Amino acid sequence: xTEAELEYRRRSPRSRELxxxxxxxxxxxxxxxxxxxxxYPIYIERGHGAxxxxxxxxxxxxxxxxxxxxxxGHAHPAIVAAIREQAARGTGFAxxxxxxxxxxxxxxxxxxxxxxxxxxxxxxxxxxxxxRLARAFTGRPKTARCEGGYxxxxxxxxxxxxxxxxxxxxxxxxxxxxxxxxxxAAAVAATVVLPFNDPAAAAAIVMRHAAELAAVIVxxxxxxxxxxxxxxxxxxxxxxVTSQHGILLIFDEIISLRVAYGGAQARxxxxxxxxxxxxIIGGGLPVAAFGGRADVMELLLPGRQDSLPxxxxxxxxxxxxxxxxxxxxxxTEPVYAELEGKGERLRSGLQQAFDSHDLAAxxxxxxxLLNIHFSSRPVRDYRSLAAADKExxxxxxxxxxxxxxxxxxxLMAALPTCLTDADIDQVxxxxxxxxxxxxxTA
Length: 442
Hints:
Elements: H1 3-11, H2 13-23, E1 44-48, E2 51-54, E3 59-62, H3 65-68, H4 77-89, H5 98-110, E4 116-120, H6 123-138, E5 142-146, H7 185-189, E6 191-194, H8 199-208, E7 213-218, H9 234-244, E8 248-252, H10 264-268, E9 274-277, E10 288-292, H11 294-297, H12 318-330, H13 333-356, E11 362-366, E12 369-373, H14 382-386, H15 390-402, E13 405-406, E14 412-414, H16 421-441
Parallel strand pairs: 3-13, 5-6, 5-7, 7-8, 8-9
Antiparallel strand pairs: 1-2, 2-3, 4-10, 9-10, 11-12, 12-14
C-alpha cells in the first residue's frame, strides 16, 4: 500500500464504513461504475460553488463537477431558485409543458445545425436514438465510431471505447472489440471503427464501407477518453467523405458543448447532420437531447406510417427544463471566453509543475476541459492514451485528493465558472508538491 493510499484511508474512515455497507447492496458500493475508486470511493455530503464536503468533513476543490455537467458549480442560486419554484408547481406530468418549448428554442438558436430537437434523460439515450434515427433515415445497417470515443452504455456504444490494443488490430485499421461481456456480437459486427486524428486512414475506411454505413458518430473533442482535441483537417475530412456518400455525420457534444457558446461544431466550423447534447443543458439534473436536420428529425413525427417512436417518462420533465433554462441563461459568450482563459491558465501551470520536476506528463486542454496523462509523448488518439502510465495516474489522483483537490480518477477536469484565480493557484501549488514527491520515487 502506497503512502498516498494510506493517507487517503486515514482521512476517510466514514466513507470507508459507508463503502463496506454499500458493497452489500450495490456491486462495488456504487450505482455508477465511473464513481468507483480503488480502494473505495469518497462519499460526498454537500457542495457549494467550486467546493464539496465529504461525510468525514473534508473540503475539496471539485475539478470534475459531476463529469462536466455542473458548469456553474454546485447549488448555483439561479438554478436552486428555479428548481424550488417549479417543484412547488409539480415535478412531472403526462403532458408537454411550456418550459420544454423554451429550452428547445434556446438550444436550437445556439446550435444552428439543430433545426429540430427531442429531449431524453441521459446521454446514453441521446446517442442510442441518434444512431437509430440514422439507420432508419438511410436504410443502412452499420455505423462507424472512433476508437477511444465514449457514447454511453447501450449495445451499439459498447464497442472499442477502451479496447486492449493487442486485440484491436493496427492503429490505422482498428478492429471492433466489445467493451464488456454482454455486448451482442451483432452490435460489434454492425460497428466500423476509425482512428481518431488520422484523416486519411479514417476516410479510407469510411469509403470502403460506405454502401452499408448509416452514420459516423464522433466526439469532436474526445472527452472521457482523454480530452483529445481534433487536429486540423480531421473533422473536415470526415465531413467531406460522409457528405460524398450520403452518410449522416453525428457529433456527440454531450461533453464538448461546454467548450464554446455553440459547442465544438462552432469552435471548429464543421457542421453535422445530427447532434447529441447533455450534461450542461440540464442545470445539474438528468436532461439530454438529440437533434439536427429537419428532414431527418421528421422521422420522429407521430402519425407517420414510418414514424420512429421515442418515449420516456421523464423526457422534457418540467423540473429538468426549469433547471436547464436557468443554467443556460448564465452561459453567455463572455462567460465561455472567461472559462477558456481559466482552462489555459490551469493547463500552463500544471505543465510547468510537471516539467520543473522532470516528470513526463502531458496536459491536454480544450476550453474548460483538461486531462493529465503521464506519458512522454503527446496523447492524440486512443493508442497514445493507452500507453500512458496508469499506476502513476492513480498515485497522483489519490495524492491530490489528500491535498484537497478532486480530479476524476482518470485525471480529467471540467472547470466550473466559479473557479477563481486563487483556486487555480491552489491546484497548481498542490500539483507541484505532489509532482516533486512522485519524481523522487519514479
